[in-house]
């Protein structure tokens, strides 16, 4: 086991065999004052910003002349309101005759304000579209700009139409602003070989006119010649034009039908009723005349080994697909977009009981559904991908879970992921403790507990090094891990309240991981940690499909009282025990399920 130590101002942690044995306050002759958040000069577009730092535990702290509580380890936290422009935040520590001052210079960018009614002006800070957009004839275009309220506004699209009316949105529909004008038009036929200008005009209450041109231009796609693209790397298809919630992940060389563009994302037609969006940098446009994505998918050839059921479906090209998982009844549905069924012959191997039924169905125009009904009350993971032979769906078989007196973890493979590392430090506590170090200590403790009970364990990192999320998953995958457990500790936001944001939480994305995440959570709450919640969210780690995955946030390092717990080796051992016993609870529940 690697030995490492966390050394910070005022605090240090002695590590023996990978564990901290004590966190002590160093002796300081001079009164110390260390601000751990924010930086001495920083910028925040926030109404208020949190302040965290550390001083002598017997000192008094004043922030902008208001007294702030100092915790037993010298930590202090507060929040300060910010005005637009420069803000000087004064922090003062006092102990006896010693006084130490520290000033923070925080800049808050001016907020967008409603323009005056007179004189008539246009605020070019809000003129949309800000980037080029691509639409088909018949699509709706929504346009918007900000100007003096109470006017009469119009917009025109070069070569399409002129002086189209706009309405002034009520403030509650425009982030509290007056004078935001909105217009909508269904795109007519127009030039398809160049960008078309979008112009706005307003006549204000003073009867003066102002005009402006949108930064983004409109490109009309041809209805006659479809635009075809191909992914140049593994990428996500998103359900919306902005935001990070993914619809499905696709590999490189997947062919897609492009029907528009908004911002930096192409709009992709999966079916007549389903569209998706993909980053334009991840798409190569193919030559005009390239065929629409359309492939025939064969019935599967089934093979089985100790760990996986493999279903190989011949497919000459790569088309988008999406996997949908249900628990009760247990099933996997694969939707192929731009597909038809090539064959019906399916041979089931002898003695294979986990597959109850396989079926194909056309659920829409060129949408082929392949459904797998499973005899598994707990699904243990799946893989869906293309290789040179075609499309592969691999389903993890139920592992053997030993019975008492042995621990049910015996013989199972666990990948433990200490969150963050290297340049990615994660959260920072008021006294300067870094999350990446706490996570690694905790991960080593959990690994030792699992190994002692007979499990096979690997860590995604064993040192303070940077490692990508994708590499973390691949490390677990290369070991054929049954479980991936990502250990973290939380922090409130830059504008959050560090005295109220606290508690423990577990996170899952796929249905197969819900019971696993929920089994661990009550064990952590029983330690006295506040119940922050059992939470569904979509993180890269928790979207991993081929093993059971949970992300755990032990507590809030940004909360002074929880920092005291998370930097105490005895409490970390208790958290380790809570996670370990939560894993056992989940596995023991499988005796009646399989």
Structural write-up:
There is one protein chain. This protein is 11% helix and 43% strand. The protein is mainly beta and 594 residues long. Strand 15 and strand 16 form a beta hairpin. The protein is flat, with a radius of gyration of 29 Å. Residues 1-26 have low confidence and may be disordered.
The strand order across the widest sheet is 40-39-41-44-42-43
| CATH domain class of the largest domain | Alpha Beta
| Full CATH superfamily name of the largest domain | Zn-dependent exopeptidases
The averaged pLDDT comes out at 93
Number of helices: 5
Number of strands: 44
Architecture of the largest domain in CATH? 3-Layer(aba) Sandwich
Helix proportion: 10-25%
What is the domain total for the residues?
5
Question: What is the overall shape?
Answer: flat
What would the CATH topology of the largest domain be?
Answer: Aminopeptidase
Strand content: 35-45%
How would you sum up the major sheet? Answer: 6 strands, mixed
Our measurement of the CA-to-CA distance between the termini, rounded to an integer number of angstroms, reads 36 Å
Structural class: mainly beta
The rounded Rg comes to: 29 Å
Regions with little confidence, pLDDT below 50 for 5+ residues: 1-26
């Amino acid at each position: 086991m690697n030995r490492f130590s966390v050394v910070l101002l005022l605090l240090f942690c002695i590590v023996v065999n990978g564990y901290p044995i004590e966190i002590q306050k160093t002796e300081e002759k001079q009164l110390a004052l260390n601000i751990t958040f924010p930086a001495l000069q920083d910028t925040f577009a926030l109404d208020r910003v949190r302040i965290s730092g550390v001083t002598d535990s017997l000192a008094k702290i004043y922030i902008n002349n208001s007294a702030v509580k100092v915790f037993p380890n010298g930590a202090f936290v507060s929040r300060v309101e910010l005005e637009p422009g420069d803000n000087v935040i004064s922090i003062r520590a006092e102990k006896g005759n010693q006084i130490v001052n520290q000033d923070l210079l925080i800049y808050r960018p001016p907020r967008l304000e409603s323009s005056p009614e007179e004189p008539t002006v246009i605020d070019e800070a809000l003129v949309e579209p800000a980037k080029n957009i691509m639409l088909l004839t018949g699509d709706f275009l929504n346009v918007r700009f900000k100007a003096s309220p109470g006017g009469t506004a119009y917009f025109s699209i070069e070569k399409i139409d002129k002086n189209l009316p706009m309405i002034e949105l009520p403030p509650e529909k425009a982030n509290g602003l007056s004078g935001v004008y909105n217009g909508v038009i269904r795109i007519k036929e127009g030039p398809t070989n160049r960008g078309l200008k979008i112009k706005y005009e307003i006549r204000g209450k003073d009867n003066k006119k102002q005009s402006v041109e949108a930064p983004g231009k409109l490109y009309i796609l041809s209805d006659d010649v479809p635009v075809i693209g191909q992914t140049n790397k593994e990428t996500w298809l998103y359900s919306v034009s902005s935001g990070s919630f993914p619809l499905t992940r696709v590999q490189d060389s997947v062919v897609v039908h492009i029907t528009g563009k908004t911002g930096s994302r192409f709009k992709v037609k999966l079916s007549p009723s389903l569209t998706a969006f993909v980053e334009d940098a991840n798409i190569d446009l193919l030559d005009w005349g390239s065929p629409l994505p359309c492939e025939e998918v064969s019935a599967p050839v089934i093979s089985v080994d100790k760990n996986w059921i493999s279903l190989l479906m011949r497919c000459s090209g790569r088309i988008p697909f999406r996997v949908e998982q249900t628990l009760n009844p247990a099933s996997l549905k694969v939707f192929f977009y731009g597909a038809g069924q090539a064959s019906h012959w399916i041979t089931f191997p002898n003695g294979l009981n986990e597959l109850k039924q396989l079926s194909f169905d056309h659920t829409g125009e060129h949408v082929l559904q392949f459904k797998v009904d499973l005899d598994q009350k707990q699904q243990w993971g799946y893989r869906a991908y293309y290789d040179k032979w075609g499309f592969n769906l691999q389903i993890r078989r139920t592992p053997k879970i030993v019975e008492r007196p042995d621990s049910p973890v015996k013989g199972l493979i666990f990948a433990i992921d200490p969150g963050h590392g290297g340049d990615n430090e994660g959260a920072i506590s008021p006294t300067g403790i870094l999350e990446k170090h706490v996570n690694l200590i905790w991960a080593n403790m959990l690994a030792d507990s699992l190994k002692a009970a007979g499990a096979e364990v690997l860590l995604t990192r064993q040192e303070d090094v940077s490692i990508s999320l994708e590499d973390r998953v691949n490390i677990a995958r290369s070991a054929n891990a049954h479980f991936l457990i990502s250990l973290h500790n939380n922090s409130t936001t830059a504008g959050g309240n560090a005295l109220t944001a606290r508690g423990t939480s577990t996170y899952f994305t796929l249905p197969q991981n819900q019971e696993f995440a929920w089994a661990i959570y009550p064990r952590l709450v029983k330690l006295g940690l506040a119940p922050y919640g059992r939470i569904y969210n979509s993180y890269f780690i928790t979207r991993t499909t081929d093993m059971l995955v949970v992300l755990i946030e032990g507590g809030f390092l940004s909360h002074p009282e929880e920092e005291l717990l998370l930097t105490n080796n005895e409490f970390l051992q208790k958290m380790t025990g809570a996670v370990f016993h939560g894993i056992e609870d989940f596995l023991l529940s499988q005796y009646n399920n399989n």
